[in-house]
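Hi all, long-time lurker, first post. I run a small reading group and we've been trying to get comfortable going from sequence to structure in the token notation. Rather than ask abstract questions, I figured I'd post a concrete chain and ask someone more experienced to write out its structure so we can walk through it together at our next meeting. Sequence below, copied exactly:
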Amino acid sequence: MPVLCIVGPRVSLQYMGLALYKPLFEKLEGSVLPAHSSAGLAGVCTGITQAVTLVTPLEMIKVRQQTDMINGSHQRKYHGLINTASTIIRQEGFFALYNGLLATVARQSWGLLVKFTGYVEIKSLFEKASADPTAPLAPWKHMVSGGMANVIVAVLNSPPDVVKTRMQDDGRLYRSTWDCIKSMAKNEGFTSFFRGSWLRIIRIAPGGAIQFAAYEQCLAWINKKSDALKLQAKNYS
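-- Answer (accepted) --
Happy to help. Here is the structure in token form:
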């Protein structure tokens, strides 16, 4: 249930952020900001927005349900979305829902920086290789661009994701995010930050392909309808 509750709003926030923040930064490219930086900065701002408003509490609930073990009485501690949230708040306080906030902000911001930048740059390669660079790309090219961007994200964003999960586990042994990082590096080695990377690639690469292709198709349809309405209003006036 936490996964179902988080996916739709999180993805909506991602592409709202891309549509909202990227044009703002594009206006500053070449003068205040370096070229090709607008997508990455839009990803950072979107990641912070996601982590603070939605992702951290729901990820906390998801992790607690996924790591919940049957006790000696053959019972589980958490039962459902609402019960898990209320149990955490009652036993640990409201701000326990924000355990791992710093790691979540780092994961979302860094991940979306890589995702948006990777997608825009890979898509631009398809556009440059096209016989007509001004023509819209085929949907499969958007899917390849989104899928490849998410493969990069799955690898490069693995360390903050692992740390975030460790911090949200009910049986965590760490006092803070920084303590978790130091302990993992000292006791388990650098490779411990990349555990589960292959599973993350399998999980999020198809999602990126579907999301970006759907986003581009919906955006094209909305723009087409908007242009038609503007033309109709102009003719009417």
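A couple of things your group might point at:
The chain is about 75% helix and 0% strand.
The domain at 2-68+75-227 is CATH 1.50.40.10 (Mitochondrial carrier fold).
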